[in-house]
Design goal:
The protein has six helices and eleven strands. The protein is of the alpha+beta class. The longest helix has 24 residues.
Length: about 210
Amino acid sequence: MNRGGFSQRIMDKLKTIGDFQSAYAINGAMALGRAMDDEIISAFFATSKTGEDGDVDVTFPSSQALDVKIGAASATGMNVAKLRAARRLLMANEVDVENEKLYLAMTAQQHDELLNEVQVASTDFNSKPVLVDGHISHFMGFHFIHTERLPVNASGHRRCAAWSRTGMHLGVWNDIETRITERDDKSYATQVYAKGSFGATRLEEGRVVEVPCL
């Protein structure tokens, strides 16, 4: 997901690395970026904490899953009908879809399925080209984020996530730090150290939608 998604902070950090061994540091930092992605992905549908002392559990409501809320068939791939349904559900929860940025995380499989949708690929349905060099970056107000790290549910269906910008939060307590040293006990092999402290959570249940896909 680091190519189009959640870890821009990592990439900004890497721009400051000037060591001749920076490739090692980049790999270490990118591993942290993947861990950051996993933290956000886990928080989409995990139990959140709220209350004055942060000790109240809030589970992800089934009403925010398309297959439960509106009967969108989870045994089908990604399609325009599901995008419309996710947008409609966000609007019903009073998300300002005109002024608030919307995202949708999906795998290469769902991206490929959208390529088969005439409404997406054809300029007859869009005032501006949506398909550029074989890649769909946005459609119907959603900015697509590619990741292969999304989980599947008990039925084996991919749990794609649609959310508004204010629906999720990533907190970073300690900035990303990388160091490169040599280990004299390992024939002076290069050792990469990378660390970071972060966590993610839903801020509001109505601003996150589960979009299950075959």
